[in-house]
Amino acid sequence: MDQKTLKAAYTRFLTENREALLQDWIDLVRQPSVSDTGEGVEDCCDMIIRKMEAIGISVTKHPVKPYPVIEGRYGNDPKKRTVLIYAHYDVQPVDPIEKWRTPPFEPTILDGKLYGRGSADNKSPLMAHLEAADFWLRETGDIPVNLIFLFEGCEESSSLGLPEFLVENRERLAADLVFFSDGPKDPSGLPIIALGAKGMLGVRLTLRTMKKNVHSRYAPVLPSAAWQMVELLGKLKTGDRVNIPGFYDGITPPSDREMEILESIPGVEAEMEADYGVRPDCHGRGFYDQLNNTPTFNISLLTSGATAGVVPAEASANIDIRLVAGMDPKRILELLTGYIQELGYDNVTVECTGAVEPSKTDVNTPWLPVIEKSTREIYGKYVIYPCRPSTAPDYLWTNILKLPAIQVRWSDPDSDNHAPNEHLSVEEYIKGIALTIQAIGDIAAG
Asked: By CB neighbour count within 10 A (0-12 exposed, 13-18 middle, 19+ buried), where does 253 fall?
């Protein structure tokens, strides 16, 4: 099918079936699927399977623990390209519930945006991929590529069970390309073509000084866990520099081509300042260089003490460390633990709360121009991130399956993923369906 005919066909399909397409999306968002607690995850899995079977996709529900992996297949023609399309059907918890404009599992359209947990992350791309397959089958009776759908129910909880599943099924999941969409656009409002993701090491530090909290009148003579934690954190990181010996060793520097791509993206410092009330500090580097090519050491939560005047006996800190290419989460955990002991904090326990390897597909992959073509057709302008600054289980495809993986991020820049009032513009969802339709056609031709 030539481009003109294809565009006319999916434009008509999206217009004539708009209400049904929106209803499928709304129904999926309405179904809870919180992997942190297990709420509704199995029911959501079964709902998706019913949709896939109705389209004509062959489905296998794999009993991966803690939550099933859905494998869908259409086509097994050795003359066609094979595309593995990934998405996750689980969502983050909804707390704090009182900050939602509308109930998180009662999806509501306000001002052209659908509000609800999972409306952007990641139920919109998941359903968009399925609707794209439905388009091809309705319009032509076939799909011009072999499709493997792989949907997991534990992405928001470190993709537990999925790495082992992929290792065991590496041969049967062989494909030419992994394609998916997960996350918001660039702050400029342009969609992002991303070829990799930072890894992540989650750590909880717990420091104890006494058996129990005591009245603050004893502050001159008894040790405060809160102050000791503050002092420890100040030793681990100063300004933008992580002080853990060996932390930066082995980092793979960006290639010249990657730097050219990042330097070509228009700056968004003004937009960031307007959105967040503070101008980004790039520490003498370009915004996108600093954002995408540097590891982080972020304190996401500090807890200690009580509302009353006490000397706290315990303090804890949740830290997420974003890892760039060349960094290994196990090694960084060992370095962190060893340095805390070296500093003399024998009253601190270090607990790993999750780990994801960094990943990257070579920017010279022949599939990048193909996906660029698809993205240009739907959105016009776009930006390329050789490595996105957030974390996703991209390493599953690049490091385990040894496949090139490219994602297009098309959710609203302010979609509030993981936060109250998560939302996605209706028009962006419709464009997301069009993108997958277009990408399937372009990959088949490429």
From this structure: exposed
Q: Which residues are CB-contacts of 426 (< 8 A; sequence separation ≥ 6)?
A: 22, 109, 112, 113, 114
Average pLDDT over residues 153-171: 95
Report whether pLDDT(158) > 90: no
Q: What is the mean pLDDT of residues 165-185?
A: 96
Q: Is 26 helix (H, G, I), strand (E, B) or coil?
A: helix
**273 residue type, one letter:** E
Q: According to the model, what pLDDT value does residue 295 have?
A: 97
Tell me which DSSP letter residue 3 carries: H
Instruction: Give the Cβ contact number of residue 8 at 10 Å.
Output: 11
Decide the pairing of beta strands 192-194 and 383-385. parallel
Instruction: Tell me the C-alpha distance between 233 and 374, whole Å.
Output: 46
Lowest-confidence segment of 40-49, 277-286, 293-302 by average pLDDT: 277-286
**3-class DSSP string for 346-398:** CCEEEEEEEEECCEECCCCCCHHHHHHHHHHHHHCCCEEECCEEEECCCHHHH
| C-alpha span between 36 and 46 (Å, rounded) | 18
Beta strands in 209-313 (DSSP E): 214-215, 237-238, 241-242, 298-304, 310-311
Give the single-character DSSP code of 34.
B
Which residues are bridge partners to 214 per DSSP? Answer: 311
Indicate if the pLDDT at residue 307 is higher than 90. Answer: no
Average pLDDT over residues 89-109: 97
How many Å apart are CA 341 and CA 79, to the nearest integer?
A: 58
392 confidence band (pLDDT: 50, 70, 90): confident
Reported in sequence order, the residue ranges of 80-159 that DSSP labels E, i.e. its strands, are: 82-88, 108-110, 113-115, 146-152
Return the structure tokens found at 376.
């240009």
- pLDDT above 90 for 144: yes
Residue 1: pLDDT above 90?
A: no
d(CA 424, CA 416): 9
C-alpha neighbours within 13 Å on the C-beta side of residue 245: 6
